[in-house]
Amino acid sequence: MLLNGEGAVFVAQRIDMPSDAWQMPQGGIDKGETPIDAAWREMKEEIGTDRAQLLAESREWLSYDLPRDLAGRLWRGRFRGQRQKWFAFRFTGEDRDIDIAGTDHPEFSTWRWAPMAELPSLIVPFKRLLYRQLVEEFQPLVAPLAR
């Protein structure tokens, strides 16, 4: 979760999903990599910047299951969901530092800043519970940023 100085959250629309859904960057952990190292790498790979300061780590690993109709199609049917470790970062750059099109393998078509409270309504339905959990845990970080 990348938060700007007003406490809004970076969200983007995936290139490969024709949907109105918006999501936060996320990604896998490579062999031998720690979760925090993966978070920094994925931030740079997906949004073109790592101009940020670590604020918090989720207390627990969070997970979601894919709906049955997607489980056999996504990820070549090898996985039925994901278990994720989340981190909150304060963005220390300027909006122009974000370059979703200039990454090696662009994943997003467009991006914007959204109020944290809106996150669950922006994501695909099967990830809403996970996003609600993140909002509940990371909401206290917003007020100090917006001062």
Architecture blueprint of SSEs:
Elements: E1 2-3, E2 9-14, H1 35-47, E3 52-57, E4 62-65, H2 68-71, E5 81-84, E6 87-91, E7 108-114, H3 119-122, H4 128-138, H5 142-146
Parallel strand pairs: 1-6
Antiparallel strand pairs: 2-7, 3-6, 4-5
Distance N terminus to C terminus? 19 Å
Rg from Cα: 15 Å
Write the H/E string, N to C: EEHEEHEEEHHH
Strand content: 15-25%
Shape: globular
Which sheet architecture does the biggest sheet show? 3 strands, mixed
Largest sheet: spatial strand order: 1-6-3
Provide mean pLDDT, rounded: 90
Q: What is the count of helical runs?
A: 5
Percent helix range: 25-40%
Low-confidence segments, given as residue ranges, are: none
Category by helix and strand content? alpha+beta
Question: How many strands in all?
Answer: 7
Description:
This protein is α+β, with helices and mostly antiparallel strands. The chain contains 5 helices and 7 strands. The chain has helices at 35-47, 68-71, 119-122, 128-138, 142-146; strands at residues 2-3, 9-14, 52-57, 62-65, 81-84, 87-91, 108-114. It has a 3-stranded mixed beta sheet, with no helix packed on it. Strands 2-7 form a two-stranded antiparallel sheet. The protein is globular. The model has no long low-confidence stretch (mean pLDDT 90).
Short description:
The protein is α+β, with helices and mostly antiparallel strands and 147 residues long.
Give me some keywords for this one.
single chain; 147 residues; alpha+beta; 3-stranded mixed β-sheet; two-stranded antiparallel sheet; 5 helices; 7 strands; 25% helix; globular
